[in-house]
Amino acid sequence: MKYSRPLYIYANERKGTFKVEYLQKIEKEVQAKWKASKAYEEDAPKKAKSKDEKFLATFPFPYMNGRLHLGHTFSLSKCEVIV
């Protein structure tokens, strides 16, 4: 069999761009929706919360059959930061 071009070029060529173009179209539509809904803008409260306001955060405690690891600290620190 004789090829007009080296074989490695055939292995690297794209089969088609339909899927890529379709996904890019969807991405642009979703980004337009996000921009219209201001999804990336900060939505901070206008006034500060009172110090008497209560907040509940739950943290699943580790099992007794395993050692503590950095993941436990990470989960607990999220509760601490939010409160």
Integer-rounded radius of gyration: 26 Å
Helix content: 40-55%
Largest sheet: none
Number of distinct beta strands: 0
Q: What is the mean predicted local confidence, pLDDT?
A: 76
- N- and C-termini, Cα separation: 72 Å
GO molecular function: ATP binding; leucine-tRNA ligase activity
Keywords: Aminoacyl-tRNA synthetase, ATP-binding, Ligase, Nucleotide-binding, Protein biosynthesis
Organism: Cotesia typhae
Domain Aminoacyl-tRNA synthetase class Ia: 30-76
Search tags:
ATP binding, leucine-tRNA ligase activity, 83 residues, 0% strand, single chain, 46% helix, mainly alpha
Give a topology summary.
Elements: H1 7-12, H2 18-36, H3 70-82
Give structural notes.
The protein has helices spanning 7-12, 18-36, 70-82. The protein is mostly helical and 83 residues long. The model has no long low-confidence stretch (mean pLDDT 76). Pfam families: tRNA-synt_1 (PF00133). InterPro entries: aa-tRNA-synth_I_CS, aa-tRNA-synth_Ia, Leu-tRNA-synth_Ia_arc/euk.
How do you describe this structure in short?
By secondary structure, this protein is mostly helical.
